[in-house]
Design a protein that fits this description.
By secondary structure, this protein is mostly helical. It has helices at residues 8-39, 45-71, 82-97, 103-130, 134-168, 177-193. The longest helix has 35 residues, at 134-168.
Length: 199
C-alpha cells in the first residue's frame, strides 16, 4: 500500500512500530558516535573504520524512519518504550564506559546492539507487510539487510582484533583469526543449507 494504512487502528500500530524503531536507532547512535570518537586515535584503525560505517549506516536509517513516521502522520520523537529501553540503555552504557584501547570489547557490544536493531527491523517488516504498508516494509527490509552486513563485518574483523590486543598485553598468541573466520563462515553455511546441528 502507499503512505497510509487501511484503517486508523492499523495506522496507529504502524506509527508506534516505526517510532519505536527510530527511537531505538537514535538511542544507540548516540553511543556509537562517542565510540567512534574514542577509537579515532586507536592503533586498530580497522575497528575505527568499522564503527564509522556503523554510524553512517545508522544515521541514514534514522532519517528514513523519521521521514516515514511523518508520512504516516506521527512524530519521530519521544523516549523508547517497553523492554527495548532497558536493553538499549545497558548496551549504550557499556559502550560509553569502555576505554579506547578495548576495541574488541567495544565492537562486541556493537554486535549486541546491531543484532537488536536487526530483529526489531524484522518485527517492523512483518507488521508493515502484514498490514499492507509496502513502503514501510521496504524500509524495514533495507534496514535488516544493512544490519546483517554490519554484523557479518564484525564476524570478519573481530578475531584478528582480539589477537592483536592479546599481543599488546604481552601474551604470546598464535594468529588463529583465519581459523575463527572459517568457523563463522562454515556455521552460517551449515544453517543456510540445513545441515547444521539440531537444536
Amino acid at each position: 500500500m502507499g503512505t497510509t494504512a487501511a484503517s486508523p487502528k492499523a495506522n496507529e500500530t504502524l506509527i508506534t512500530y516505526v517510532t519505536d524503531m527510530h527511537a531505538l536507532i537514535s538511542h544507540g547512535l548516540q553511543a556509537i558516535k562517542k565510540q567512534a570518537n574514542n577509537l579515532k586515535d586507536n592503533k586498530h584503525q580497522e575497528a575505527f573504520r568499522a564503527v564509522q560505517e556503523f554510524q553512517r549506516t545508522l544515521e541514514s536509517e534514522q532519517q528514513l524512519l523519521a521521514d516515514r513516521v511523518k508520512m504516516l502522520g506521527g512524530k519521530a520523537t519521544g523516549p523508547l518504550k517497553d523492554a527495548m529501553s532497558a536493553l538499549t540503555g545497558v548496551t549504550a552504557g557499556i559502550i560509553n564506559a569502555l576505554r579506547s584501547e578495548e576495541a574488541s570489547k567495544s565492537i562486541r557490544d556493537d554486535y549486541t546492539f546491531l543484532s537488536l536493531v536487526a530483529v526489531s527491523y524484522l518485527m517492523l517488516h512483518t507488521t508493515s507487510k502484514g498490514l499492507g504498508d509496502l513502503e514501510t516494509a521496504a524500509i524495514a527490509e533495507r534496514g535488516y539487510r544493512h544490519m546483517a552486513r554490519l554484523i557479518m563485518n564484525i564476524d570478519r574483523l573481530l578475531p584478528k582484533l582480539v589477537v592483536e590486543e592479546l599481543r599488546q598485553d604481552g601474551l604470546t598468541v598464535s594468529d588463529v583469526s583465519e581459523d575463527c573466520r572459517k568457523l563463522v563462515k562454515q556455521a552460517w553455511e551449515e544453517q543456510a543449507s540445513g545441515t547444521g546441528m539440531a537444536s
